[in-house]
Amino acid sequence: MNNILNEIKNAKSIGISGHVRPDGDCTGSCMALYFYLKQNLSEDVIIDIYLEPIPEEFRIWEETNLIKQLYNKNISYDLFISLDNGSLNRLGFSKEYFLNAARTIDIDHHISNDKFADLNHVIVNASSTCEVLFDLFEEDKIDNKTAEALYLGIVHDTGVFKHSNTTEKTMNIAGKLIARGIPFSKIIDETFFLKTYVQNQILGRCLLESFLILNGKCIISAVSQKTLDFYYAAASDLDGIIDQLRVTDGVEVAVLIHETGFHQYKVSMRANGSVDVRKIAENFGGGGHIKAAGCTMNGTLHDVINNLTLYIEHQLTGRS
Ligand code: AMP
Ligand code: MN
Ligand code: MN
């Protein structure tokens, strides 16, 4: 922990990034670290954030407009910090900055973390990277924007304090953040629950077209690129659908598959019971957590479903 603070103190330029397809914890942790460092470091330290486009609903601070989306080979950093990300490749375009930086830090909570930086601070029992950051920060140096960003990440990775990764500590941290007077209901409503009309339509379609296999223990739904195009929707418009699939009575594993290219699919998995979906995802080069994991798979949709369900079936029948 002291090492991390020392590295930060010694840097004159700091780059911050998170995983591809940023979610609430990725966006929240990048923004929280940015706000915290801006607030507490000297003004002449350069601090830049790099992320793929973030979902509209996370643009709750003007500073999200400062997030950069392009790699510039003429720029390199004294220190590059990867947040909420388990592997070098999942940094996407910002991987180049990471590779060119003098020093690197990885702050994360994924079990499947490759420890790819000079300093790796990976707390696997933390609900979120935002929870890990809260512990690194000095409490009296957390301003309101930092508090809001931390809250955003915790809310999203815990599914609003309901997933099994929520601990007494998570709630204590959330309590401390709320005590600062941040608009917590608004953050929950407007970034988590609020859906556009189109997002609801796609949710409806995914539920309608879903099917149960393995004696009702596994639910699967797939979305084609054609469907997304029809609704002028982006992949981030699918956020939350997997959670609705997961709460189907009797289901132990929920799978949402969406087409990302020719014979290429992004797979999201969530578990209710004893199935470890991270193990399944790792077989296909992905990762995540025991109850929430993902991977990218190649082949036809039938290949993807066949290959995936074989592993799910093995786990359900105890042949892991
Ligand atoms: P998702 O289903 O995309 O919401 O992801 C669930 C969890 O698995 C998150 O913690 C992700 O960071 C992780 N994850 C998703 N896709 C991958 C992947 N291809 N490789 C490693 N981790 C992943
Ligand atoms: Mn994430
Ligand atoms: Mn996370």
Characterization of the model:
- It is a single chain.
- The protein is α/β, with parallel strands linked by helices.
- It folds into two domains: 2-193, Alpha-Beta Complex (inorganic pyrophosphatase (n-terminal core)), CATH 3.90.1640.10; 197-316, Diaminopimelate Epimerase, Chain A, domain 1, CATH 3.10.310.
- It is 38% helix and 19% strand.
- The protein has helices at residues 2-10, 24-40, 95-100, 129-136, 144-157, 168-178, 184-193, 197-209, 225-230, 241-246, 277-282, 301-316, and strands at residues 13-18, 46-50, 79-83, 103-108, 119-122, 211-213, 218-223, 253-261, 264-271, 287-288, 292-298.
- The protein has a six-stranded mixed sheet.
- The longest helix has 17 residues, at 24-40.
- The radius of gyration is 20 Å and the shape is globular.
- The chain starts with a helix and ends with a helix.
- The mean pLDDT is 97.
What distinguishing features does this structure have?
2 domains; 38% helix; 320 residues; inorganic pyrophosphatase (n-terminal core); five-stranded parallel sheet; Diaminopimelate Epimerase, Chain A, domain 1; binds manganese (II) ion; binds adenosine monophosphate
What would you say about this model in short?
The chain has 320 residues and is α/β, with parallel strands linked by helices. The protein is built from twelve helices and eleven strands. The strands form two sheets. It has a six-stranded mixed β-sheet with strand order 6-7-8-9-11-10. A five-stranded parallel β-sheet has the order 2-1-3-4-5.
Helix content: 25-40%
**Which CATH architecture of the largest domain?**
Alpha-Beta Complex
Question: Based on DSSP secondary structure assignment, what is the total number of beta strands?
Answer: 11
**How many alpha or pi helices?**
12
Query: Measured on Cα atoms, how large is the radius of gyration?
Result: 20 Å
Q: What is the terminal-to-terminal distance? A: 36 Å
Can you write the helix and strand succession as a string?
Answer: HEHEEHEEHHHHHEEHHEEHEEH
CATH superfamily of the largest domain: inorganic pyrophosphatase (n-terminal core)
Question: Would you tell me the structural class of the helices and strands?
Answer: alpha/beta
Let me know the average pLDDT. 97
Shape from CA axes?
A: globular
What characterizes the major β-sheet?
A: 6 strands, mixed
